Amino acid sequence: MIPLSSDTSVAAATLQVEAWRRLAPAEKLAMVRALTAAVLRLEREGLRRREPTLDATTCARRLAERRLGSALAQQVYGDP
What we know:
Elements: H1 10-22, H2 25-50, H3 56-68, H4 70-77
Helix pairs in contact: 2-3, 3-4
């Protein structure tokens, strides 16, 4: 098994993967949802810290461009 990260031993990674395998599908989905929500919050907060003067609409558009690409964001939000 390949370690999950550089600071995780193979033994620890093996135990972690075994624990994940024992989870019910609903538990796994809940974990993924929580992690996704955390990443989206961090992304939004990072953008707000880098550009504190952005209004909510522009912030949402910038985040959509990062996630979806410019072409799809334009279809959703129209021209900037």
